[in-house]
Amino acid sequence: MFDKVLIANRGEIALRILRACRDLGIKTVAVYSKADESAKHVRLADQAICIGEGPAKESYLKIPNLLAAAEISGAQAIHPGYGFLSENEAFAQMVAEHDIQFIGPDAEHIRIMGDKIIAKKTVKELGIPVVPGSEGALVEVEDAVKMAEKIGYPVLIKAAAGGGGKGMQVARNTTQLREVFPIARQEAEANFGVPDVFMEKYLERPRHIEIQVLADHHGNVVHLGERDCSIQRRHQKVWEEAPSPAVTMAQREELGEIVTKACRGMGYKGAGTFEFLYEDGKFYFIEMNTRIQVEHPVTELISGIDLVAEQIRVAQGHKLSFSQKDITLKGHAIECRINAEDPETFAPSPGKVNVYHAPGGPGVRVDSALYAGYSIPPYYDSMVAKLIVHGNDRDHCLRRLRRALSEFVIGDIKTTLPLHRELSMDPDMVKGEYSIHWLEKWIKAKKSSS
Ligand code: ADP
Which of 286, 438, 440 for mutating ligand 1's site (highest number of atoms within 8 Å of CB)? Predict the structure, then answer.
């Protein structure tokens, strides 16, 4: 049993983990950079250790500093949150070698899923349908041209080690492909340190549907239904909901069955997410995330299951306390990611939060590390709050969302709250009729009309 967990993260997710630990009666150790001295997770943790300078490379990404903090504090486990080192195989491995429990899957599974080429090959062998494309890395442009002719244009070039929606290039014909292929390789190398790229058929109007799984160390695996994360800008999620307005009960059960079977086949442990694109009634795997995700609360609100607490429980060796038949998904939940950005230009807008008023009332949850008087440092991700709302059905949820958005005040920095207010009223959004390209088109149309 753990009596102390080190949280290797910051911001809202550090707080989220801290709260799960408190609920389980576990003490917490916060780590922080010099830019985060006044951060909420530092103030609320039982113990806090400074691990370096503001830039993440000099603190939250410094493995020796994190391991030293765990040793000094006597933490028996490390929760990596999302981002930073959460999908770093070497970190998971080193944590295990120091006899500290990594709250996540085995390093081996992080390695497999961290390389999208290996991930696709692995899940395909386990019976999961994947997006048509190259089976391995493409090195020569001529091989890419041949592959594109085989699968048909448009095609997408993706980095094998990619993440965060970075480094993807679309090509609609051979001329474009010859142009973007070397750029994609250079970007992959620059962003992820590995030049390997692969090709996928570029889907023109899919939805992004992902399935949450939870597995213990005893071979028990459950799924908690899907999340629809199609509302994206630059391949990054902006708004997520569960259940998806487009997925039927039969599809949910079928997909859930396929992914839980694959997890059993792999011996996967902990929380994980299988991401799919969905078009014309078919699902195509794109990647698996081997960590807790930003959008996990929508699943928590419809399932009543605390995913972070379950991650900690299974890492302690406990069996899942429920089976698939015990899980009932109730109502509808929507999450809005609120970024400290200009809502028109999306330019980052860090700075001092002079006014902070979070909404409340039935069905409303706010996951944020903001408080009045806090200064948002410029070094990290611009997401500063998540508003998650639950309702009996989608319409009820949307009404509550509008109510909550109208109450939310974050001043005087610029945030994307006005964008979410507009989205929550938009007729397509109200109908739930959108694909992964919907938001980009909506933003473009808005710009050209103003
Ligand atoms: P990352 O790891 O960088 O987030 P993903 O493979 O998860 O990359 O893809 C992120 C997003 O990019 C998807 O949600 C989707 O919007 C878009 N995308 C990925 N693959 C395709 C594809 N084959 N066709 C069209 N869009 C895609």
Answer: 286
